[in-house]
């Protein structure tokens, strides 16, 4: 049995004349934290969009939990356990913090309209489980005291944590975070690092991270993939990537 949760090979995405992603490959083993780095416009978010079904890749193969998914819709891929956040926070800002987590779970529940109307026993049980899970994750991301606040009134760092909780209530096996540290101060970034490590260590989650904060990337990653102008440039451990002259020139040298 494979220990790889994700195997991507020759991933290519073309927008008209622009080759945004050109033959990218990456592998994530179960329980690994893998980061994808590269200069602005390198194609990182486009890779995310291809993996999660927002875009249909022009070419390439994506195997998730042993199954090819490159032709599936985003909805089906999410139900298989690949869940992402976005570069810019996307919460239901007029709903409360708690409601955000309940809505996320309803999108994954299989209850019929009739079961909801008549509030059957199985419906009530599912509702209670959803509530318990929301409370569990709110505690984990230190937002339980804010459960009844409108999500839009939270500080930015709290909104970022709520986004992660919203992913986690759907029980993903692969969590994909698009620049989760953007806009966070150093102590919030440190807290984020602990949270991501905890998701892996206590919940067995694999993580794919896009991030520009090099300290976070170097501290947290088991493996790093570097892309430049859509093309794979290097991959390896943080140590190997940090010392790779091509990476230093293309990316770190820009800092
Ligand atoms: N829907 C689209 N249509 C046309 N071009 C696109 C589209 N999405 C992305 N691109 C282009 O693809 C290239 C890669 O963009 P992408 O956002 O994936 O880079 P990135 O590495 O995530 O950048 P950043 O670090 O700045 O977020 C860019 O040239 C971008 O303009």
From TrEMBL:
The keyword ATP-binding is assigned to this record: yes
Q: Which organism is it from?
A: Denitrificimonas caeni
Residue span, ABC transporter domain: 6-254
**Gene Ontology terms for molecular function:** ATP binding; ATP hydrolysis activity; L-isoleucine transmembrane transporter activity; L-phenylalanine transmembrane transporter activity; L-valine transmembrane transporter activity
Database matches in NCBIfam families: PRK11300.1
As for family, the record states: Belongs to the ABC transporter superfamily.
Name the Pfam families on file.
ABC_tran (PF00005), BCA_ABC_TP_C (PF12399)
Name of the featured protein: High-affinity branched-chain amino acid ABC transporter ATP-binding protein LivG
One of the GO biological process terms: D-alanine transmembrane transport
Which CDD domains does the record cross-reference, listed alphabetically? ABC_Mj1267_LivG_branched (cd03219)
Q: Which UniProt keywords apply?
A: Amino-acid transport, ATP-binding, Nucleotide-binding, Transport
- Encoding gene, per UniProt annotation: livG
The beginning of the lineage is: Bacteria, Pseudomonadati, Pseudomonadota, Gammaproteobacteria, Pseudomonadales
Record-level GO cellular component terms? plasma membrane
């Amino acid at each position: 049995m494979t220990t790889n949760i994700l195997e991507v090979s020759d991933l290519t995405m073309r927008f008209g004349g622009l080759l945004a992603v050109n033959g990218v490959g990456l592998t994530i083993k179960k329980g690994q934290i893998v980061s994808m780095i590269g200069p602005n416009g390198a194609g990182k978010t486009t890779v995310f969009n291809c993996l999660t079904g927002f875009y249909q890749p022009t070419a390439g193969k994506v195997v998730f939990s042993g199954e090819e998914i490159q032709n599936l819709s985003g909805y089906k891929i999410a139900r298989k356990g690949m869940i992402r956040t976005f570069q810019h926070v996307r919460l239901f800002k007029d709903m409360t913090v708690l409601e955000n987590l309940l809505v996320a779970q309803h999108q994954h529940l299989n209850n019929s309209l009739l079961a909801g109307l008549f509030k059957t026993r199985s419906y009530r049980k599912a509702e209670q489980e959803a509530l318990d899970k929301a409370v569990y994750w709110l505690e984990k991301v230190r937002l339980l005291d804010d459960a009844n606040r409108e999500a839009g009134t939270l500080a930015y760092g709290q909104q970022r944590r709520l986004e992660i909780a919203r992913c986690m209530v759907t029980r993903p096996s692969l969590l994909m975070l698009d620049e989760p540290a953007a806009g966070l101060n150093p102590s919030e970034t440190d807290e984020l690092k602990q949270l991501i490590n905890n998701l892996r260590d206590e919940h067995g989650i694999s993580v794919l991270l896009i991030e520009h904060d090099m300290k976070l990337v170097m501290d947290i990653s088991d493996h790093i993939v570097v892309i430049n102008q859509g093309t794979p440039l290097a991959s390896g451990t943080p140590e190997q990537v940090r010392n790779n002259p091509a990476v230093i020139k293309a990316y770190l040298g820009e800092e």
